[in-house]
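sorry for the late reply, my laptop died twice this morning and i had to redo everyting from scratch. anyway the thing you sent over, i finally got around to it. pasting the sequence first so we're on the same page, its 420 residues, then the predicted structure underneath. double check i copied it right bc i was rushing
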Amino acid sequence: MKKITPVFLIWLLSSLFISQNVAAQAPILPAAYRTQVYVPLLKGKRVGVFANHTATVGNRHLVDTLLALGVKVTKAFGPEHGFRGTADAGEKIENYTDPATGIPVISLYGKKRKPSAEDLADVDVLVFDIQDVGTRFYTYISSLQEFMEVAFENSKPLMILDRPNPNGFYVDGPVLDTAFRSFVGMQPIPIVYGMTMGEYAFMLAGERWLTPKANEKHDYYKRAQNSADTAFHFQVIKCANYTHKSLYQLPIAPSPNIPDMASVYWYASTCLFEGTALSEGRGTDHPFVIFGHPSLPTNLYAFTPASRAGAREPKLKGQLCYGWNLYGDNASILQKINNKVQLQYLLEAYRNFPEKEKFFLVPKAGNIQFSSFNRLAGNNELMQQIKEGKTEAQIRQSWLPKLDQFKQIRKKYLLYTDFE
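ok and here's the structure:
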């Protein structure tokens, strides 16, 4: 056996350090970038793509990438904010033809939320690719569920091109009570659920949270895929070099009112203001980072919501408001959030609001039980706890039993190394 010289040992250790350092610095790649993995499965098929402006490979839209690689895309489907991501929040969109490609675009945030059998007649395979922000009330996971149901019910193979979750490094918030189910919260998950779209899709299927027909078809195809000549039924293409410890920076704003990472990070805590009289910051430079109301103390941060792209009619438009501006660098924001849904600003806003009976928005029907705040919170408990003057610690304590149960379910479906 040859003797290991000191010089060789130093070279070996240096090589190992360099290789480990290179691996640590390997860029996170969304699944769409891994064309060599999934494009062969799409060749020769008529493909329908559910996507928006975030579905890119480098600087090119996924649809353009697929067409350039010889994949036949026959139909596109668009969610809230549209296929190109330019529509206001909640704005209904009609079907149209994409001017860049000539492909018919079926809007799933207008007259309907699910494709019809007719929409799928010229489609062999469905592909889903959208960048999520990892909060329950960001509606793309609701769109994912309904797209999965249609795919399974109509026996259309479904491929999900996964993308990293920029809030995938923690789990927190109240778990939704399904009595308050809506498009801003369809399943019993917390506000921050710590899963990618692909992982969440596996949970939807695995927990049988889809329609009865979709669950039945999924069970059938899972059994059928034991046969070697059966094509894939449901497949997730994973991201490269991503874990739930990653702090992934979004290269593209996911929607008009989530323009930067500050909004991405604060959104889980401040979106609840949408269900109150306060401006949640739409119509400012920093939606969900700036928030307030004209009747709050005038020594707070002052701002005036104005009409702008993505928020043509923001709440409290043109009115001088007082509140908070939480903008800062990513490191300072992450330190403030501390892997938690922050309630301190909501509680302080309520304490300082003069007409407390007007703090929470009341539906036109008059039933506060199903107010927008309760739909966002996922229950009617948080509103009552705020009215009763409960502390943040007391409120958070009430979340723990269901939160712990969810965490156990979540672990069954993770595709990437967890943060714990």
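Residues 392-411 form the longest helix (20 residues).
thats about all i looked at so far, will dig more tmrw
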